[in-house]
TrEMBL record:
Region ranges (Disordered): 1-47
Matches recorded under Gene3D superfamilies: 6.10.250.1680
Recorded superkingdom: Archaea
Biased composition (Basic and acidic residues): 10-27
Lineage: Archaea, Methanobacteriati, Methanobacteriota, Stenosarchaea group, Halobacteria
Pfam families, A to Z: DUF1684 (PF07920)
Alphabetized InterPro entries for the sequence: DUF1684
PANTHER family (alphabetical): DUF1684 DOMAIN-CONTAINING PROTEIN
Listed name of the protein: DUF1684 domain-containing protein
């Protein structure tokens, strides 16, 4: 289900635009920016889809008590170990009749470390390689406590972002595993054209 009823749309848009401006500033000026130093003078901000509260949904978690190891291939061709700690199920109900609605699932992962937070949700969708980065996009979700079966968690695709390897080949990024390839378009979050 969409989680739009509990938020003020104008305030939400303002907060999102503010976060995006902060990120643009980081990319333009910070020494750890993924934008190569010789390209920063020409950098005039990231491209984004317009904020859309439709893509801020409530997901129901199924927690995996004995998390399975998932080997994610990386952009440099190596494998990165993650644990599949939860499956997030959510509904999308969109006004646009050209876009498919329904119930969807994404796996949430953590690295194998004792303090592994937040939940890592890499995904691909029908915008991947066309309007968004060809390697997929990421979301990080913070749970306010240890997740239990049936817990609800906000998944905001407006916060979906391209990994640093989209901007520089010096970075090595995990690629979303096939179980997180959505067969729908999610026109929310960062664009990459």
């Amino acid at each position: 289900m969409s989680d739009t009823g509990s938020i003020d749309a104008d305030q939400y848009r303002d907060e999102l635009e503010s976060k995006r401006a902060e990120k643009d500033d980081f990319f333009a000026t910070h020494p750890q920016s993924p934008i190569p130093p010789e390209e920063r003078d020409d950098f005039d901000g990231l491209d984004y889809f317009d904020p859309d509260p439709t893509y801020r949904v409530t997901a129901t978690a199924t927690v995996h008590d004995d998390p399975e190891v998932v080997l994610m291939e990386s952009t440099a061709g190596r494998e990165v170990r993650y644990l599949r700690v939860a499956t997030l199920e959510f509904d999308l109900n969109r006004d646009d009749e050209d876009l498919e609605d329904g119930t969807f699932e994404l796996a949430a992962y953590q690295q194998e470390s004792p303090n592994a937070e937040p939940l890592f949700v890499p995904f691909r969708d029908k915008t991947t390689g066309q309007q968004t980065y060809q390697g997929g996009r990421y979301m990080e979700l913070e749970a306010d406590r240890d997740l239990e079966d049936g817990d609800e968690l906000v998944v905001d695709f407006n916060l979906a972002y391209s990994p640093f390897c989209a901007y520089s080949e010096t970075f090595d990024c995990p690629l979303p595993p096939e179980e997180n390839w959505l067969e729908i378009a999610i026109p929310a979050g960062e664009r990459y054209e």
